[in-house]
Amino acid sequence: MVEEIKKILKSLEGTVVAFGFKGEKFSSILNSNNKIISFDIMDEISKKNKKESSKSKKIDVTDLRKKYEKNKVNAILIDVDVMNRYMIYLIKETIYIGKSNVYLFGNKDKVDYYLNKYKRYNINFKTNLYNDNMIAYINISSAKNNVLKDKFYLLKDKLELFINMLSDILTS
């Protein structure tokens, strides 16, 4: 799977945003790619008004649209295993800030779960399986979004997470 991610990084062009990338092995490939105009690697997303303690770039979820909406992003890469906590927000934001492609990779079950959430926006996708891992190629150029639908889906997702946490507490 790592080799496939390296192939994806070599083929990217334009503006790229990566969420959850750790380590220098991928950033060196992004630096060597001449077709990439600019790229941002975000290791984690912080909450507002918290002091940054590391050198990794942190941004509030609500500031993503402010930062990237004017100049849309050509490719968005998301490591689902690292960004699992923020995915219900990232799905909506990537539809707004993205221009063409979103790449999800990580645990097969998590990627499949979030891929079903992306299907709400009438997107085209394909997947590749690697043992317990999966890479999903999502084309969001034809995605249809609506502010009211987004709020409804966010409420639905939060309620689903709350019910899952409550059931885990009651069963343990």
Task: Summarize the structure in words.
The protein has 172 residues and is α/β, with parallel strands linked by helices. 44% of the residues lie in helices and 29% in strands. The chain contains seven helices and seven strands. The chain has a seven-stranded mixed beta sheet. A hairpin with a 2-residue loop joins strand 6 (124-130) and strand 7 (133-139). The longest helix is centred in the last third of the chain and has 25 residues, at 147-171. The chain is globular, with a radius of gyration of 16 Å. It starts with a helix and ends with a helix.
Task: Break the fold down into its secondary structure elements and pairings.
Elements: H1 2-11, E1 14-19, H2 24-32, E2 36-45, E3 57-59, H3 63-68, E4 73-79, H4 80-83, H5 87-97, E5 98-107, H6 108-118, E6 124-130, E7 133-139, H7 147-171
Jot down its keywords:
172 residues; alpha/beta; 7 helices
Distance between the termini: 35 Å
* Count of helix runs: 7
Characterize the main sheet: 7 strands, mixed
Helical residue percent? 40-55%
Mean pLDDT comes to 84
- Which structural class do the helices and strands define? alpha/beta
Kindly provide the radius of gyration, computed on alpha-carbon positions and rounded to a whole number of angstroms. 16 Å
The order of strands across the largest sheet is 3-2-1-4-5-7-6
Sequence of secondary-structure elements = HEHEEHEHHEHEEH
The dominant shape is globular
Instruction: Quote the beta fraction.
Output: 25-35%
Low-confidence stretches: 47-55
The overall strand count is 7
